[in-house]
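Request: Could I get any protein with tokenized structure?
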Amino acid sequence: MSGQSDPGFTPTGTIAATKDRRRVVFATVVGTTVEWYDFFIYATAVGLVFGQLFFAPLGANSALIAFATVGVSFLFRPLGAFLAGHFGDKLGRKVVLMWTLILMGAATALIGVLPTYEAIGITAPILLVLLRILQGISAGGEWGGAVLMAVEHAPKKKRGIFGASPQIGVPLGLLLASGVMAIMTAIAPGDQFLIWGWRVPFLLSVVLILVGYYVRRKVEESPVFAELAERKEEAKMPIVQLFKKHLLLVIIAAFVFAGNNAVGYMTTGGYIQGYATNPEGALAMERGPVLWAVTGSAVTWLISTLVAGWVCDRIGRRNTYIAGWIMQLVGVFTLFPLVNTGDVGLLFAGLAILTIGLGFTYGPQAALYTELFPASIRFSGVSISYAIGAIAGGAFAPTIATAIVQATGSTEAVTWYLAGMTVLGLIATLLLRDRSGIPLGPDHEAEQSVSPIYGLAKA
């Protein structure tokens, strides 16, 4: 029964067992959590220690330079997306996910043993940036494979909630990264944190990678790709086909994510942590309470992401996004007034309000992206759209925010910058038709290739 339209069917036509689907969900959650823990532990450390240990000797702009290294990794996400998209559409989703996990873990663990500027001079920040680049390549390839494994295994009417499983890996990764860092500030307070405490969360990555690798090994390949492989219909040059036929769609989809990502990187990029705890800043708050506030906001983000996945299965991806952009805009305008009070409870409140909107503009993304692109080039489409959106959105959001505050002495312009990115995401969403429930299998390539962009008949 190779003609089934619901990817809940395997290539041989049997309905995928519930336990197999649960295993896929569990594996995507664990794997993406580990990946994003690794990615975010760097951003958290930038705001807390890297500026002092690796970049301080570079002068007065050391904080700006340190945050720029967060963005540098995004410039290499497209490379990871191109590689992962090419091999994911030719060799399968599973093999790519295994390699991205290993690459991310190795880079993170090596950061944990890296000598500081005081020990080896300029070589230290150079090596740090190189390892951050490897993290960026891995992150660029990870997301597309994870969401396709989740959504292509899902029943047609539950793609949103299944797709939210890899999405919650982001707030879970943030929760884990901030939580571990907060614990280490208690175990190794003051100078001890700068001497050795910050290294422990990076070295912990080795254990997490082993767990993630074991879990992902147990997962079956995506039924959509398995059917493509069985028919020998894998795309020969998927990236060439993607840009030839769907370039405008890639750009619009990228801006949908950019609107979410720029705002999200106020926390995941380490900006709020660094802004609130900067000893020379206006707030100069203690590290531990700020990290616990960020950890708490990761919980509200996780919950809202799951709820958004459930909601978008009922009212559609587009309607859920529109509601999310409105909520995100509210969060943007309340964030800094609450943070600037210097009260840790109000800081948490500002982040919690913000993350509700973030969840609703992130939870439906996996299902939305999967339903936008034809099966044979889907890995390339979702990965490259995501990577471009990350560059346009979060790549340099912390750097831009730091530069704005340095230039104006106020966070008011940062608020308008984030509001502008939110509106941009809303506009991009309004340009797309809702394709909830569209058949995902290779029998429906013609239907999948009809452009979802309003005003275009074909891609």
Summary: The radius of gyration is 21 Å. The chain is about 75% helix and 0% strand. The domain at 18-449 is CATH 1.20.1250.20 (Growth Hormone; Chain: A;).
